[in-house]
Amino acid sequence: MILSSMRDVVFGYGKEPVIDQLSLDIHVGEFVGITGPNGSAKTTILKLLLGLLQPWSGTVHMDAQTVRGSKLNIGFKSEQEAVVERSLREVGMWEYRNARVGELSGGQKQRICIARALAGEPQVLVLDEPTTGMDRRSREGFYDLMRHYADVHGLTIIMVTHGLEEMGDRLDRTIILERQERTIALILLVFLLIGISAQKLIARYNRDLANVHTLVPPGTEPHDWEPTPQDIASIEKADVLVYNGAGMESWIDQVTDSLSNAKLIQVEASHGIDLLEGSEEDEHEHADTTDTHDHADDATTEEHDHNAEAEEAHTHDHDHGGLDPHVWLSPALAVKEVRNIEAGLAKAAPEHAEQFKQNADTYVAKLEALDQAFKAAVTDSKRKDFITQHAAFAYLAQEYGLQQVPIAGLSPEQEPSAAQMAAVIDFAKEHQVKTIFFETLVSSKVSETIANEVGAKTAVLNPIEGLSEEEIAEGLDYIGVMRQNLEALKLALNE
Question: What is each CA distance from 16 to 20, 263, 349, 378, in whole angstroms?
């Protein structure tokens, strides 16, 4: 006979469900253990079964009649002296019957509470971690006693416990709960700023709060990367999707439009940042002038339909046309990206908003220190221009009054034409450029060709779009790579 049942129950605190579509049955005379990690809603299930909480949806039923047709008794009701004495003796507390509460240990208090419940001669006994504070011998005796009550008296026992190994085969059935963890799918984010900052925002105070999953594999150039069906399935299950935006992920609209997860919070990290034009046709006009790539005058502001707190980051059109997506390479703009991520996480888990803010503040302080280091390094530098493999550093150049001269366009794998190569070579000779920068995830052949032509050396200026195996082994993150970039620029700008 089914004593209690739950059907498709959904319940939570605040806006977040902690129980989702749970169904179970408790039979008369069963000794049932409920177990699971902290935060898996074990106690919440007990309260729902007892009617102390009402589900958001679904049904909870507790049969109000016993097998014999009498009223179901849950908890302590009897004051009969003989029954009380028997119950105290059964839990080993008869000798403490006259002791004051303050004289009892935690385990002894637990046994007194259990004795009071048994003295009521209930048909159902609901226990939440009843052996807390008991020693091993007392726990073993208690488990045997509960087994006896289930077998001899037909008592239905529902008990939350972490002691499954100790209980052996005393339980009739075990209900194992799993913590419903949040999953945050990080897209592009191999460029580290978003990947690292999101993990730091989550992990510093509560490592169990979320699973952070970076979809773009390490060592992969993200401009041409697209998600696999398995990646899309991961996004479908996620609570939060973080991506750079500004046209970096050409596939984002098609993928998100195909999702059925209406609760997915989408965070465009570059939201609210004035985006620079970056059309491929304009990248090599420096042949006739040396300041074509100073985009300060033609920077464009993308109008969005949502606010800077990422409240509605999923509602606007992601197609930014020929805009430059490399905003993270300016530490000052990286601060804005971190704040957008913070806002998205806080929306997904408002109960942890203060933790996210504290972590964001810590990371932002590091970014601001990095920003000041860049400003100090370029203030008195001998030159303000640098040649780099592709047009990734316009935001950094604008922020610090520099001029990037890219060999290729926005995509690092774009092959420059003969005319473009000639223009860069002419610029390098005219301005006596001593260093030609390249990056780690694509071939350095073009940079080396130009360097050989003009008698310059090559060095790495990392756009942080991915990590090489060596960088991963070194444990580098965004701050570390940007400081390497800073040192490389300091040398090149003072030759």
Answer: 10, 11, 7, 48
